[in-house]
Amino acid sequence: MSAWCVLAHPLHPLSQAIFAKSALKGVNFLTTSEACAELRLRHGAVLAAAPQALTALTEDGHNLLNQEDAQIVQLLIGDESEPVEGIQPRVIRIVERHRDIESSEDEITVYLHDVLPPAPGSDHETMFRAWMEASRNGTRPNLVEQPLHWCDLNDVTSAVSDLLQHPCEVGTYHMSGRRTWTMDETWQEFDALVQRTIAGQTGKFGTEHLESRGVPVVEAIAIRNGETERVRPDLGPLHVALTKVNGEGWRPRTPLRQSLMMVIAQLTEPYAS
Questions:
Q1: pTM (2 decimals)?
Q2: Which of 146, 187, 229, 273 sits 20 to 30 Å CA-CA off 54?
């Protein structure tokens, strides 16, 4: 059974990241002719390796949707404006429509928590911009004590690609990193990387830039009023669903330092916004 995904928001940064990963893993995409042209410009290397991964929703594209053996899902990027448990995650919806029952469809909703690099214009991007300025000035930003569960966009898109090929049980899933990071731990890692970046740009390296700090020690999170400030999203349902799909479950592999380097690269792009 072939897997086809209709991109409802083809030029959204999250849609493009999922497209770039999934196209190389065998998912075929359909979208408007205008969006196809733009995606071909932006992702030429991906489409050179997987030329059949993108089809315009012209007459030929609609004919593909009518094939009896085609598995059709629609990828939608949700609105971040509605907080979930006090936070504002990115939202992905995978909608599978059924041919045998008119207007029947199943929907999988995936909430993405603490993904790096952060979404443009998000609170996390604003935070990292302020941290970048503080690091450049040799100062320390005000840190709000809020444990986070960072995960990398590369791990997220790989998991979503698996779900596009093998839609799991209908329901709501949460995706975040497994480990808890304090703001102070994140700042220490980020500050060290910014300082190394500045040293590389200026050629002024010191021994402090070459020291290996190692992974911060795992510490207990303070409990207030009988519970932690923020509980990690429940990853159990996602892990079970992905285990059925890929045999491994949800196993994010990207180190925080690598993710933070991507954040720094994004923030230092000329006239980045």
A1: 0.82
A2: 273
How is residue 55 written in tokens?
């089809």
* CA dihedral of 62, 64, 65, 69, whole degrees rounded to 10: 160
Does residue 167 have a cis bond before it (omega within 30 degrees)? no
Please name the residue that has the structure tokens 């059925």: 244
Reported residue count of the chain is 273
Q: Tell me the C-alpha distance between 9 and 131, whole Å.
A: 31
Residue type, 114: D
- What pLDDT was estimated at residue 198? 84
Please give the average pLDDT of every successive group of 10 residues along the chain, which has 273 residues. Answer: 80 94 93 94 96 85 60 78 52 77 72 93 93 95 91 96 84 94 96 88 52 49 47 93 93 96 88 43
Q: Beta strand pairing status for 2-7 and 54-56?
A: unpaired
**How many CB atoms within 10 Å of residue 70?**
14
For residues 179 and 152, the answer to whether their CB atoms sit within 8 Å is no
Query: Is the CA virtual torsion 258, 270, 11, 176 positive or negative?
Result: positive
CA distance 222 to 254: 27
Q: What is the pLDDT of residue 5?
A: 92
Element spanning 172, H or E: strand 171-175
Q: How far is CA 196 from the centre of its chain?
A: 25
Angstrom CA distances, 38 to 16, 27, 53, 102, 132, stand at: 11, 19, 14, 33, 32
